[in-house]
Amino acid sequence: MILVVEAEAEESLEKEQKKVAGIGVQNERSLHAALKQWYAQPADQFEVPLNGYFIDLVRGGQLVEIQTRNFSAIRQKLEVLVQEHPVHLLHPVTLEKWVLQVDTTGTKIKSRRKSPFRGSLTDIFEELVRIPELIKHENFTMEFPMIREEEVRCRDGKGSKHRKRESIKDRKLLEVVSSHRFTSAADFLCFIPEYLPRPFSNKTLSAALALPLYRCRQITYCLRKMGALEVVGKQRNELLFDTISA
């Protein structure tokens, strides 16, 4: 009992110290909090109330939001904020991950293994399809830290079928390998190889990038919405695209 009380006291003290340091931890998962600490600089402010929202991080006049998944949940917030403020959105892309299995109490580690999953920068389009038009706004920029993470799971029967009913309890940052910043629609043209003959289709892009067809459809959709790509024709049932000159 004494050990439990001491552990609870230490945890409470740690949370209080983080609050004093200016980094709010309430309702934050480990990955979100760790990315905030990774990106933060000494003069930054955290959890700043503005226009009915709390901003993850404020650096001078710039607002920084960290979203680990589900851009739909933050879309309205971003659309409001960019009208009057420069907004920088951080979204992590998982390169590699380790899976940590815990018991139903979350206190005992049952196993740890490296997942066969391998991510790439093109994974950003899985979420970007929800807010592609925002990149056209002069106040909006994005950054994608490429990370290694640890995913904490529990076999509680509540997760999705493809995870065999395992729930994801937490995601923890292990390492930021690199980071990629995008400030305009033109920056996203890096995903269209210069050697690719114009016009091109999703199928020819898929072959050039060695990516699934669905991912290339996401890429061309986003670039069209950004104003970096246009439909210039059709071949059978395939749309043909070309880049738009600045």
Automatic annotation (TrEMBL):
Domain of life assignment: Bacteria
Pfam families: DUF8091
Protein source organism: Pontibacter chinhatensis
Full protein name: DUF8091 domain-containing protein
Domain DUF8091: 30-182
